[in-house]
Amino acid sequence: MRIANLAGRLTLLTQTGAVDVEKASEGRFGSDPTAVYGQWEDFTAWAAAADLPAGTAYDDTDLQTVVPEPAQIFAIGLNYREHAIESGLDFPVEPPVFTKFRTSLAGPVGDLELPTDTVDWESELVVVIGRTARNVAVDDAWDYVAGLTVGQDFSERTRQLVAPAPQFSLGKSFPGFSPVGPALVTLDEFDDPADLEITATIDGDVVQHSRTSGLIFSIPVLIERLSAVLPLLPGDLIFTGTPSGVGGGMTPPRFLRAGEEIVTSIEGIGELRQRCVPGQPYTTATA
């Protein structure tokens, strides 16, 4: 099953096109793309058995972020060995966790405003939580996952790495820095949800290419470690980390430029497409 946010409305994407959930369910489920995760078991049972109407054509530019109002967004750093190496850091013994603020969320297709000349890319598999998870064991963790989607953890490296105290969450939360989509794909759609090809290109040139089986901390381990500290809530997002190939790890460093298009794709899910445009300049305060 492929679930999307089409022009602000909860939508199923079928082989025949887009099906509006509120209309197809005759009001049993509302149009809110976030609220459905609080009814996840009922919703998936209905969708699996429903005699859905034929879908309608849609423009992918009308797709918006899959979960527009998650209660929590978790992001994991250094979760591929090659990325830790290119960052010049040791492999972590616990998942490094930060957040991306909700106002940075964006749809799968659109413009990315560049506030500086040091904006980097980080292609990521994103997990959407389907029911409240607290103290979940690794072996049970997949039962708490609604599905998977594609994300970009765009990062303004100057702000992120400012001394003496780095500001990961702020540096990664400028408007549009967290595109997610094009759809949430439920686990039954994958042969192996733990082993998916992930790729990023800039103007057609491959800059990142890996498989999600290369995660240091797997999705079940991330759910176990996070839920041991706090509850994971329906609709929460987990950005699981990026493979090697980020611009800051290149010699010399290479960052995004206005006019470039970055495309992020994950096997079985789809792709994000962002066209880089000049943004409002960002400057730090001076003493």
From TrEMBL:
<dbReference type="GO" id="GO:0016853">
    <property type="term" value="F:isomerase activity"/>
</dbReference>
<dbReference type="Pfam" id="PF01557">
    <property type="entry name" value="FAA_hydrolase"/>
</dbReference>
<feature type="domain" description="Fumarylacetoacetase-like C-terminal">
    <location>
        <begin position="73"/>
        <end position="275"/>
    </location>
</feature>
<dbReference type="InterPro" id="IPR011234">
    <property type="entry name" value="Fumarylacetoacetase-like_C"/>
</dbReference>
<keyword id="KW-0479">Metal-binding</keyword>
<dbReference type="GO" id="GO:0019752">
    <property type="term" value="P:carboxylic acid metabolic process"/>
</dbReference>
<dbReference type="InterPro" id="IPR036663">
    <property type="entry name" value="Fumarylacetoacetase_C_sf"/>
</dbReference>
<dbReference type="GO" id="GO:0016787">
    <property type="term" value="F:hydrolase activity"/>
</dbReference>
<keyword id="KW-0378">Hydrolase</keyword>
<comment type="similarity">
    <text>Belongs to the FAH family.</text>
</comment>
<protein>
    <submittedName>
        <fullName>Fumarylacetoacetate hydrolase family protein</fullName>
    </submittedName>
</protein>
<dbReference type="InterPro" id="IPR051121">
    <property type="entry name" value="FAH"/>
</dbReference>
<dbReference type="GO" id="GO:0046872">
    <property type="term" value="F:metal ion binding"/>
</dbReference>
